[in-house]
Request: fold
Amino acid sequence: MNSKVRVLVFPCGSESASEIHQALRHSVHVELFGASSVEDHGRVRFQNYIGDVPNIADASFDASFARIVADHSIDMVFATHDTVLDYLAPRADALGFFLVNGDAAATHVARRKSATYTLFDDCAWSPAMFSNVDAVKSWPAVVKPDLGQGGQGVAVVRNANEAWTAIEATRHPVLVEYLPGEEITVDCFTDFERELVWAGPRTRERVRAGISMRSRFVELTPDIREIAETINARVAMRGPWFFQLKRAANGEWKLLEISCRIAGTMVAQRARGINLPLMAVQDFMKRKLLPLDCKHVPLIERNIATRAVFDYEYDDVFVDLDDTLIIDGRVTPSVIAFLYQAQGDGKRITLITRHRHDVNTTLRDARIGAGLFDAIIHIDDIQRKSAHIKERAIFVDNHFPERLDVSRENGIPVFDVDRIEFLLR
Reply:
């Protein structure tokens, strides 16, 4: 095996792929790769990016994917879509990689709600599934796609006519009982010895496009734990997985779905110290796992993060000090993070400032090491910053007249403080 575990995330543009990236990017055990069949956010997220991968429905996919695995010496793969995971599971050994939670029987059951409900039809927490509309004794009911996820394509039907209409509009429909109560997700982890080492329930309080944007942690009650243990006993899990529950009219929990992949909002568990993607890497290395839970994180809030594709080649970063790198006596986090990122990418960094005090003293007071800068240019009010700017550079300054002058005189990209976040990886 490689000195580092070489991990491929495919497809790498989804929310769950972003969570895997954030969870593994700083691990000393991991070299991270991303691949996608379509042009998406993965290109700006993953430094080691592989594009133009054939769709899994394409006849050339298997050979192409095997070549990617071989060319990059990939050890393990996270599949971030249920259908992709279901496709790769029976092929992983032949294609030459370890697939996280890639048992073929498990992915088949988890991908199909009809198979899931049938497997657990002897459990009180499995919802009633109706073979046809006439079998429904009490309305409303629910029509959902057998291969759906994230609540997509779900229709609440209030009578037989609505049910028939929804069934005709749904590919591979499943007709099940209506569950009116609250909904939770339970993030889980099963190790290489089939032991359930983590189960963490969380709410789905604000949902956008099937993604939980606000989650509050709730107690792992004995009934939820029993459901998790039963699923783990009947489905061959290994790695991170999750299931969703909803309360029935009588207040009891009922199963909505199971998934063998990382969920985007598993970031909630990482916020409290449970890094599920990293646990999968450690489990791949056959290490016994001990979750260390921080109970002082009651909830998480999420929003949309934006990154920009920047197609300008540059060697130097020129950055201002006052109200740019330091604002109101405090370091600007996004700017200092970008400077360290640029330094790591081999860029030269020059501090250029009209600061009215001793620059080294100000940097020291702000806890910024002067060694971060390849040069410090301290100019007076008469001099123009544009006179000191090199070619193949970018310029960061909060003051519009300065940016305007550099843009006109030097013809290079200029950035205000608010734009720097778009360049962070």
Q: What stands out?
A: Residues 316-423 form a domain with the Rossmann fold fold (CATH 3.40.50.1000).
